[in-house]
Design a protein that fits this description.
This protein is an alpha+beta fold. It has a single domain, classed as Jelly Rolls, CATH 2.60.120.10. It has three helices and eleven strands, in the order ββααβαββββββββ. The strands form three sheets. Strands 3-4-11-6-9 form a five-stranded antiparallel beta sheet. It has a four-stranded antiparallel beta sheet with strand order 5-10-7-8. A two-stranded antiparallel sheet has the order 1-2. Strand 7 and strand 8 form a beta hairpin.
């Protein structure tokens, strides 16, 4: 269901990441430069990605690229679904991007590893992590679904009715 400027979708109907030639946003040259930057990412993140790919070859098969599929530009938002023992989010710290993230467990249970601490997070619970904090998540139950929302600190401007709103500087 959708209207002018809004849409309602079932997360399960949102496919994983895609990059067809006609995808709006980046030109071919911009996409190639972005790929080159990814190849220059910090060695420790590259090693974590490679290990995750070896240990969890099925990672991402039930990924839902919400931001990309809906054309959201103000923040990142994705979801991943997994069964018991499946990796939901690879170990990462967002240090190279500077993003802070919130993970919301919508269904099932997820085991988060955060800076060496393990914790189970259940439906309706969330975990917040600042940029630079190493985190990952694994499904603890079949059908676990976790929503991830991220963005740059300080980019959000509270509306005038919010308790933390401040008038713009002169």
């Amino acid at each position: 269901m959708e209207g002018d400027g809004w849409v309602v979708v079932d997360i399960s109907e949102i496919s994983g990441a895609f990059a067809p030639a006609d995808e709006p946003g980046l030109s071919w040259d911009e996409r190639q430069e972005a790929r080159a930057r990814l190849r220059r990412r910090p060695a420790e993140q590259t090693a974590r990605n490679e290990k995750a790919a070896r240990d969890f070859p099925e990672f991402g098969r039930r990924w839902h690229a919400i931001r990309q599929n809906l054309g959201i530009t103000a923040f990142g938002v994705n979801a991943n679904e997994g069964d018991t023992g499946e990796l939901l989010f690879i170990p990462h710290d967002e240090a190279e991007h500077g993003h802070e993230e919130v993970y919301v467990v919508l269904r099932g249970r997820a085991r988060f590893e955060v800076e060496g601490n393990s914790m189970d997070v259940g439906p309706g619970e969330l975990l917040y992590a600042r940029a630079g904090v190493l985190r990952s998540a694994t499904a603890r139950e079949d059908g676990t679904l976790v929503l991830a929302v991220g963005g740059l600190p300080g980019a959000y401007e509270p509306p005038i009715w919010a308790a933390d709103w401040r008038p713009p500087p002169d």
